[in-house]
C-alpha cells in the first residue's frame, strides 16, 4: 500500500488533534513495513488467526489498547509499537535483536509524511440557487446573488434575477470565464456599479448587452458603452474634528521656519493665540500667545525669514510684534499711530514690486484707513485712504482693465456709509488712486475675491438683504448670483485642492457651505454647519490634511476636517 493513498484516508482532525487514533489501515501498513523492510516477524494472536484480520499490531491498536492509545499522541503510540514488537520478538526468537535506531528512523520519516501531506482545499460547490455542470453555472430566476461559484466554470448566467447591483468581487477568481449573461436585470447605474463598467472594459469574456434601469438620466442606456468618467463618485464634506473652548474673531495661517501655524484673535481675553500641529496626537495645540486688550485682528507677515504680527485692538492702541528666535518669544517693536487707527476692523497684507505693505480698515467716524510700508527696520505710514467713511473691510486683489492688459493691484474698501470703493495702484506715484465703486450694493460689510479659470469673482457680504457673487467683466463687476443672507457678516470663498467653496455665515441660522458648479458657473448648496455667530472661515493645510477653522463671536471656535469620500470604493 502506498503512503499517499494511506494518508488520504486521514481526517484533518488527526493532524489538528494528535491524541486521536489513526485509521486501521495505517497501523496495518506500519506492521507490514516493520515485517518486510526491517525483518520484524508478524506475531498473530489466536483471535487474529481465527478471524484473518492481520498481525499483532492491528490487534493491539484496535482491541487491546484502544482506550489507552486514544488518549496518547502518535509518537507515544509508535513507541509502544516498537516496545511491543521487541518484547514479543525477545520471547520467541531468543537473543536476536533489531536495532532500535532503524525503527526510530523509519517512524520519524513516517511522521514527517503524515504532517506534511494533507488534504487539498475543497473546491466551492455549486450554489443552491444555481444549476451547474462541469463548465457552466446557470443562476437564473434565483432572485438572489450567489456568493460562491466553482472557479473552473466557463459560462455563468445571472440573467432574469431583477438585480439592481452586483457585489464588487463576484467575478473574483473566475479566470476561466468566457461568457457572462446579465440580461433581464434592473441595474441601478450609480457609483456602486462603476466597478462593473470598468470590468467590462478589460475582461476577455463575452458579455451580452445590458442596460440601466435607473437613475432617470441613465435609463435605457447601454452599460457596455459607459465609461468610468460617466460616474461622479468623489464627494467631499466638512467633518467636525476639534473644538477650541473660546470665542474668536479673525483666524489666519502662516508658514514660518518650515512649519505651519495658526493665529487666532480672542476679543474677550485680549489674546493672540498661536497653534501648531501635533504630529503625534494629530490635533492642534497651543504654541504661544500675545496678551493685549480687546484684540480683533492678529495678522502675521513673514518678511524674508523674520516673523512679524500686527495686533489690532479696540482699546489701548494697536502694535507690531517681532518673533525673537533667541528669546523664543514675541517682542513689541512698534506702536501704530492712534490718531489714524482708532477702531481697526480688518487688516490685509500684500506685496507689490518686492515691497511689503499692510493696510488697516478703520471703522471709526474720525479714523483713516491707512496703508503702511516696510522700510527695512519697521513699518511707516505710506498712504491714507477713505477718511471718515467707517470702513469695515479691505480686500487686496489683482485685476486687468482690458483682456490684453496685465493685472494690476487693486484695493476694495467696504463701508457702512457708502458702496464699496475700488482703488487702483499707480505705478508712477506708487500710490493707490480712487477709480470707481460697485453700483447698487449699499450696506456691504465685506468683500472677498476668488478666481476660477482665470476669471476674477467677488463675494459681497450683507447683513440685511441678499449677499452676492459678482464677476469682473473688464471694466466693472457684474451680478452672477444672489444668496439670502439675513444676519450675515462673513461670506468667505476658499479653495481646497481643486474644490472651490464659498461659506456664508449667519447670526440667526445655520452656516451655508456652497460648492462651485463648473457647468452652471455658479455656486450650489453643499452642506450646513452649526457655528454660532461666525466671523471668519480660514483654510489651513498641514501635513497633507486640510482643515476649516470657523471663528465664533458667541460660541466655541470650531475646526472641521475636509474629507474626500469615494462612493465607488
UniProtKB/TrEMBL annotation:
SUPFAM superfamilies documented for this protein: L domain-like
Positions of EAR repeats: 237-279, 283-325, 329-376, 378-427, 431-474, 476-518, 522-564
Top-rank taxon, per record: Eukaryota
GO cellular component terms listed in the entry, alphabetical order: cytoplasm; extracellular space
Domain LRRCT, chain residue ranges per copy: 185-234
Keywords noted in UniProt: Cytoplasm, Glycoprotein, Leucine-rich repeat, Repeat, Signal
Subcellular location: Cytoplasm
Signal sequence region: none
PANTHER family per the UniProt record, alphabetical: LEUCINE-RICH GLIOMA-INACTIVATED PROTEIN 1, LEUCINE-RICH REPEAT-CONTAINING PROTEIN
Name of the protein in its database record: Leucine-rich glioma-inactivated protein 1
